[in-house]
UniProtKB/TrEMBL annotation, chains A, B:
<dbReference type="InterPro" id="IPR004045">
    <property type="entry name" value="Glutathione_S-Trfase_N"/>
</dbReference>
<dbReference type="InterPro" id="IPR034333">
    <property type="entry name" value="GST_Zeta_N"/>
</dbReference>
<comment type="similarity">
    <text>Belongs to the GST superfamily. Zeta family.</text>
</comment>
<feature type="domain" description="GST C-terminal">
    <location>
        <begin position="91"/>
        <end position="216"/>
    </location>
</feature>
<dbReference type="GO" id="GO:0006559">
    <property type="term" value="P:L-phenylalanine catabolic process"/>
</dbReference>
<dbReference type="Pfam" id="PF02798">
    <property type="entry name" value="GST_N"/>
</dbReference>
<keyword id="KW-0413">Isomerase</keyword>
<dbReference type="InterPro" id="IPR036282">
    <property type="entry name" value="Glutathione-S-Trfase_C_sf"/>
</dbReference>
<dbReference type="InterPro" id="IPR034330">
    <property type="entry name" value="GST_Zeta_C"/>
</dbReference>
<dbReference type="InterPro" id="IPR036249">
    <property type="entry name" value="Thioredoxin-like_sf"/>
</dbReference>
<keyword id="KW-0670">Pyruvate</keyword>
<dbReference type="InterPro" id="IPR040079">
    <property type="entry name" value="Glutathione_S-Trfase"/>
</dbReference>
<dbReference type="InterPro" id="IPR010987">
    <property type="entry name" value="Glutathione-S-Trfase_C-like"/>
</dbReference>
<dbReference type="GO" id="GO:0016034">
    <property type="term" value="F:maleylacetoacetate isomerase activity"/>
</dbReference>
<dbReference type="GO" id="GO:0005737">
    <property type="term" value="C:cytoplasm"/>
</dbReference>
<feature type="domain" description="GST N-terminal">
    <location>
        <begin position="1"/>
        <end position="86"/>
    </location>
</feature>
<dbReference type="GO" id="GO:0006749">
    <property type="term" value="P:glutathione metabolic process"/>
</dbReference>
Length: 216, 216
């Protein structure tokens, strides 16, 4: 497998964590989202992902080849295909709650704060840096309040119990980003405690932006 | 089951389509996103969904009760629980491609153009109506180009072959919204043809905003 990745991409970071937790190997191919006007916009990469976003997963050995985009879809695919270590439990309600938590990040927080949106705010809407920080902070705070509430009954080391799931694959990169933007997380003790725990584990450490070859 | 819905919510519309395709009954409880400062922000609704968004699905008869948020998580739950008519095929690669397509809408297009974001652009960033239309149009055009490319090999009546899937549940509401904002869709012939076909079917017709009790 090949993973098209950018070290700081939160969505690629989710997939890197999942691959590590599941002990799967993938060759990481860096796509620099800033250099050369953004390598994700190149003709070569558009062949891989016409949506011009990372990550993308290429299964070179699958019949007829197979390229998959969207981090949560990649997580589902890996979990259905490689079942030694799974990141969703069997219980239908638990699976649903874990997916809802993951989508609260992937659909309601991250899309508003990713690079292309911040670029549009500056370039097309000419918002100030201060307004951009307020925008970023607003969606983190609204979103994290909802996440913390979803974790209300959580008493394990991970978001849902004592095994890592899709939820942790999504939460850790989102917290990493929030900290990078100096957001105060003191209102979210469950989130903080899960973040601290996950980052003691090599699967999470080795997926972090600064551990990537393209972080240099 | 009870579905907390708003007639114009694209995410609630996805779930209404899925319920109809699967021939499942749910009592629809309208949450008006504009009246009374937005009923989704009320204390009563925050108990149901702390993220203050629609839809939410309440399984009153499940053990200990069970409330589920996030439209795609609800679709997965319904498809795992009620298997007479399924909206994801068994093939792992096909499932992955359908989920990726659905997430291209739910993660990359819709979150940027929903009500709370447009409200923030006006209220906090004081962007003009013209700039707001340009913002809306930009994310639709970028997103729809990616969707049309994902449909390149599609030759069926639906997004993926001749059965409805999660992809159609997501696409039809997104196209409906784009048309409401008068976006020119002539560059997306596959999307247009799937939209036209789906809207000949009662499952889609009965899920449309104007068919809802709260549309009055």
């Amino acid at each position: 497998m090949k993973l098209y990745s950018y070290f700081r991409s939160s969505a690629a970071y989710r997939v890197r964590i999942a691959l590590n937790l599941k002990k799967l190997e993938a060759e990481v191919i860096p796509i620099h989202l800033l250099k050369n006007g953004g390598e994700q916009h190149s003709a070569a990469y558009r062949q891989i992902n016409p949506s011009e976003l990372v990550p993308a997963l290429l299964e070179a050995n699958a019949e007829q080849g197979f390229t998959l985009t969207q981090s949560l879809s990649i997580l589902e695919y890996l979990d259905e295909k490689f079942t030694d270590t799974v990141l969703l439990p069997k219980n239908i309600q638990q699976r649903a709650l874990i997916r809802a938590f993951s989508q609260s990040i992937a659909c309601d927080i991250h899309p508003l704060n990713n690079l292309r949106v911040l670029q549009y705010l500056s370039a097309a809407l000419e918002v100030s840096d201060e307004q951009k920080t307020a925008w970023y902070t607003h969606w983190i705070e609204v979103g994290f309040a909802g996440l913390e509430a979803q974790l209300k009954h959580s008493n394990g080391q991970f978001c849902f119990g004592n095994s890592a799931s899709f939820a942790d694959c999504c939460l850790i990169p989102q917290v990493y980003n929030a900290l990078r933007f100096n957001i105060d997380l003191s209102a979210y003790p469950k989130i903080q405690s899960i973040y601290t725990h996950c980052n003691t584990l090599s699967a999470f450490q080795n997926a972090a932006p600064e551990a990537q070859a393209d972080a240099a």
